Amino acid sequence: MSADAHSTSIRDEFAHQADSFARSPTMSLAETLGVLIDLVPEDPQARWVETACGPGLIARAMAARVGSVVGIDLTPTMIEKARADAVQAGTPNVSFEVGDATALDLPDASLDGAITRFSLHHIPAPVRVLEEMRRVVKPGGYVIVSDFVTDDDGASAAWQEQIERLRDPSHWALLTPSRIAALGKRVGLEPDLDRVVPFEIDYEEWLNRGSGGPANYELIERLRGEAPPQAESFVVTGEGAGRALHYRNSLHRWRVP
């Protein structure tokens, strides 16, 4: 798939998910939202960017901790949703623009921090996201990344990727915590904090939110029954409508030298 074709798949998928993504309990869990916002230093003068912002949940959540946040996303439908929700929430210090996380239309060293959540696994060259976040942040500022991750074991990772791609056509590839840390090092960021936080979500809600989930339900269920015994990053427990999906959220905070 070409880069342009994949970008189109991202726009299509998140136009499909614009409302369900924003409403999903997954996005507001303490283990996926609270732990991330806690990494943002409180500074009423600080200017931040949220890249691949979706409906702007992170930007709105951190608005009380910083001076201003601009959210940037590739999908116009998501930006429309983010703007409307910001007005409804009464967060005047956040704004949103359509843009590409791998090519930000922002000046060098112009911000105090950059943050992104659950985006790297959608992007064919995630190092470009880290390069751009580093570029736009001033020396001494912060770059923060959060994403759910896969296993170091190759068989487990390959098995999980099949399910992820069937459920969400815009999915590209999951990283491991060590690979995310390595990307930060590669672009010259200085490690400040790393942690992995397990979280649990409703399996049926997750499956049905992706545009491919309902259509590929039977194949996904068959693959799920073939889980490698050593798989740890994608585990489903329970029965029927009460099934739970267990993921791992990898959090990274770096300083710009």
Could you describe the 3D structure shown?
The protein is of the alpha/beta class and 257 residues long. It has one domain (3-148, 170-199, 248-255): Vaccinia Virus protein VP39 (Rossmann fold, 3-Layer(aba) Sandwich), CATH 3.40.50. It contains ten helices and eight strands. The chain has helices at 3-16, 18-23, 30-37, 57-62, 76-89, 126-136, 154-167, 177-186, 203-209, 217-224, and strands spanning 43-51, 66-73, 94-98, 111-117, 137-148, 190-202, 235-237, 244-255. Strands 1, 2, 3, 4, 5, 6, 7 and 8 form an eight-stranded mixed sheet that branches. Strand 4 (111-117), helix 6 (126-136) and strand 5 (137-148) form a beta-alpha-beta unit. The longest helix is centred in the N-terminal third of the chain and has 14 residues, at 3-16. The radius of gyration is 18 Å and the shape is globular.
CATH class: Alpha Beta
Radius of gyration: 18 Å
Number of helices: 10
Taking pLDDT < 50 over at least 5 consecutive residues as the criterion, the unreliable ranges are none
- How many structural units, i.e. domains? 1
Shape: globular
Order of helices and strands: HHHEHEHEEHEHHEHHEE
Beta-strand percent range: 25-35%
User: How is the main sheet built?
Assistant: 8 strands, mixed
Helix amount: 25-40%
CATH architecture: 3-Layer(aba) Sandwich
Number of strands: 8
Mean pLDDT: 93
Provide the CATH superfamily.
Vaccinia Virus protein VP39
- What fold name stands as the CATH topology? Rossmann fold
**Straight-line distance between termini:** 36 Å
Structural class: alpha/beta
